[in-house]
Design brief:
This protein is an alpha+beta fold and about 500 residues long. It has 2 domains: about 425 residues, Growth Hormone, Chain: A; about 60 residues. The chain is built from 22 helices and 4 strands. Strands 1-2-3-4 form a 4-stranded antiparallel beta sheet, with no helix packed on it. Helix 4 packs antiparallel against helix 5. The longest helix is centred in the middle third of the chain and has 36 residues. InterPro entries: MFS_dom, MFS_sugar_transport-like, MFS_trans_sf. It comes from Chitinophaga barathri.
Length: about 500
Amino acid sequence: MSSTSAKQSIWQVIFASSAGTLIEWYDFYIFGSLSLILAEKFFPDTNPTLGYIATLATFAVGFIVRPFGAIVFGRLGDMVGRKYTFLLTLLIMGGSTFAIGLIPSYATIGVFAPILVLILRLAQGLALGGEYGGAATYVAEHAPANRRGYYTSFIQTTATLGLFVSLGVILATRLSMSPEKFNDWGWRIPFWLSVFLVMMSYYIRIKLHESPLFSKLKSEGKTSKNPLKESFGNKENLKLVLLALFGAAMGQGVVWYTGQFYALSFLQNTMKIEFIQSNVIIAVALLFGTPFFIYFGGLSDRIGRKNIMMVGMFIAAISYFPIYNAMDKTVDLSSKQEVSAMYRVEGSVTPDSDGKLTESTAKVRTYSDSTVVRDVTVTKAGKTTQHKEVKVGTGTMIWLIFLVFIQVIFVTMVYGPIAAFLVELFPTRIRYTSMSLPYHIGNGVFGGLLPAIATMMVQRTGNHLAGLFYPVSIAIICMVIGMVFIKEKKTKDGYAEEPEV
């Protein structure tokens, strides 16, 4: 094969694998991006805070079951093949996401609404547990060893790009209609769009061939007959699995979810930043930060995976408190001067899809730095709820984008090299199973529970920064384990090989 055709081949593999993985992340994350609205739709409205935490917990359930998906689909991928396994996970994810958009609200079907959401969320988690390991393994087994970090880093961008696309679709939908229509039924559109994205991705992926390394093993009859036993019943391989989890993946998981999902949750739920503006802040920070996944993935080919990941965890751990304190101070009204002449009261009465009237009244206060605070009272079907919305000025918004962007850089440092790190840690015959489990425990359990745990800590203590103790402690523990027990070696080409234990 010529160098030109080889280059075309690897880029075709990357494009097809990344497109499908991006769509699966999009499917997975629109739930989290719409958590405030879903809390209103699928849970009782008697306690909005409890409903929001319940929604975050349902969101987290999808992460908790990811390790089980890793076991089920990892075993299938090591026995049958990488290609057909992640085709199956794609279809399960897309079907579950579309179905969430069809579920009637709690007001319509009662307790069956959260039960159905939970079941579909479980299906999403299982599918994603099988997707990532397959895509990362598939790309890595096509890539030359000395460029593995660079090529697999394109898969690493898909999680952030999936979140970015989900935010973009949600914002476009929201801006195309009134807030009332969006809250009533428009939020379902991003879920429905999933079916078209999945169909396109399936068409692209079905044309792929099996990974050359796996095909060679299969033709020689050397594929694993029992990947689970070889991965976790073998003492030496189990040691590598535990090292991958506690020395890399769990720290990477909490840094990833702090810098992206908890940042959004903090803006919306703690700082009360208005829905559109909070999503724009995250989306712009992600847009500028995403290329650094590729930069640090490529850099890891030259200086090693461990060095970059450990430094990323350390800097994140010592930076989170000052960063979030700086974010929180931007909405501290005690330090702002109100422009009393601009005080006003806004009101509206609108019908929903059932013909019921919703009455909304907002007391609007404006401050000298262009911050606008709306204290909103909503009455619907005889029930009254209150909430606050804050919209910051342009200068403050740019500052918040910068603070989130810094967090995204930490994410790229720990996440960019980790696919290559995990692939290189395990033999080809059991790679899909062995790498998927620690990755999805680190991300699904330690990372996925972060928004719910952090939000509950803030609610219980009243301290806006209390939730950060969780990711900071996990990142430090993981960094210490990684620094002590992971020892990388290099070849004359300068790329990292399998770590020594």
